[in-house]
Amino acid sequence: MSQLIRDGQWPMGTRIPSEPELVELFGVGRNTIREAVRALEHAGLLAPRRGDGTYVCGRNPLAGAISRCTPDPEITDLITTRRALESEAAALAAQHADADTVTGLKALLADTVAALDAGDVERYALLDLEFHSAVVTASRNPLLIELYDGIGEVMRRNHRDLADATSGTGHPRGHHDVVEAIADADPARARDAVHRYLETALDVTARDAAR
């Protein structure tokens, strides 16, 4: 079941099959299915809804662990964590990204800019997270990608607050600098570009909190 969730065959928000259907699907007993479902609920991947079955609520067990430890994280903590992971990921991406990867990043950036220009904060927030996730994926570091995927779910749950913090940070200039540094295979410049962009986001958040 966890693999079906991770692979996206059971997307977020999907109601999983009933217990008898799961027994037939996996060829195991009811007790085994119940134990597996309970384990996935504890891991933060599944959530029961009274009278309406069990639904997929997460893809990465790490996200569940993070949510249990810090159920209501501060936006500044999320941005600081992003800065630590994404700046190094961008440097690695500058070493490993090929032309197709750069093209994909530029396309994502164009969509993000369009959403911002249109004043669609919801779409901007989701595309912004997708852009940064693509940069991390371009690092080709499996452990870094896994760690980011875990906190990525936490960030998606707080995406509107993150959008408020980042929409006034000089975007799209900061994002453009990241992509250009990756395209130029310049790790130091890519690292610095992400660091500057998210440092500005921290400053915006601090100013808003002081009002």
TrEMBL record:
GO molecular function terms noted in the UniProt entry: DNA binding; DNA-binding transcription factor activity
Keyword Protein biosynthesis tagged: no
A Pfam family annotated for this UniProt entry: FCD
Record InterPro entries: GntR_C, TF_FadR/GntR_C, Tscrpt_reg_HTH_GntR, WH-like_DNA-bd_sf, WH_DNA-bd_sf
Keyword vocabulary terms for this entry: DNA-binding, Transcription, Transcription regulation
Domain HTH gntR-type: 1-59
PANTHER family: REGULATORY PROTEIN GNTR HTH, TRANSCRIPTIONAL REGULATOR, GNTR FAMILY
Protein name: FadR family transcriptional regulator
Source organism of this protein record: Gordonia desulfuricans
Lineage: Bacteria, Bacillati, Actinomycetota, Actinomycetes, Mycobacteriales
